[in-house]
Structures are given as C-alpha cells and as structure tokens.
Design goal:
- There is one protein chain.
- The chain is mostly helical.
- Strands 1-3-2 form a 3-stranded antiparallel beta sheet.
- The protein is elongated.
- The chain starts with 7 loop residues before the first helix and ends in a 5-residue tail after the last helix.
Length: 102
C-alpha cells in the first residue's frame, strides 16, 4: 500500500467526485462542494492532479472558470488506496469481519 496522506480539502473534493472513476463535470463539482474558498479549491485540485490522484480534462486549472469547463475523475489505479486513506479503519474492519465459516 502506498502512503497516501490527505488533508481535509483533499478528502472533501474526493468525496464530492466519488471514487468510482466516473467523470464529473466541474460545474457539478462546484455545486456539490458549496461555498468554498476559490483559491484554496483550485490549489487543492491542482495538487490532486499533480499527484495523479485525479484526472482532469484540462491540463492547467488556474481559474474557477477552468474548473467549471473541465471534467474530473478519480484515477482508478489509486481508487482503493484513496478509499483506505479517506476511511483508515475500513481495511482492518474488513479483515476482522472476514472469517471462514465452518
């Protein structure tokens, strides 16, 4: 497992996108996030794209208009690790629940 450490902003964007890997238009992402500081939102999206956790249809997301015109999706190769990073206790719960039936 990769050591993924997420901030609160990262987690809120990933939850708004969903971890299924299906694309979400930027204007819907902004609607799901509600009132968020634009500069912080853009910086968080840029960092997620730079780390390759999120794939964007636009290479550079610099302004809020770029976010509105882009589509975003979670990189499917990181989906399981991101799911574990969002809910760290999830993996241990699954391991303890999985027991062989006799």
């Amino acid at each position: 497992m990769r050591g993924i450490h997420l901030s609160g902003g990262d987690i809120s964007i990933l939850k708004a996108l969903g971890l299924s890997g299906s694309p979400l238009p930027g204007h819907l992402l902004l609607h799901r996030l509600g009132d968020t500081d634009e500069r912080e939102l853009i910086e968080t999206i840029q960092s997620l794209v730079n780390m390759d956790y999120v794939i964007s249809s636009k290479a550079n997301v610099v302004k809020i208009e770029d976010v509105q015109r882009s589509t975003f999706r979670v990189n499917s190769s990181y989906a399981d690790e991101l799911r574990d990073a969002i809910r760290p206790g999830r993996r241990t719960e699954e391991r303890t629940r999985r027991r062989r039936r006799q």
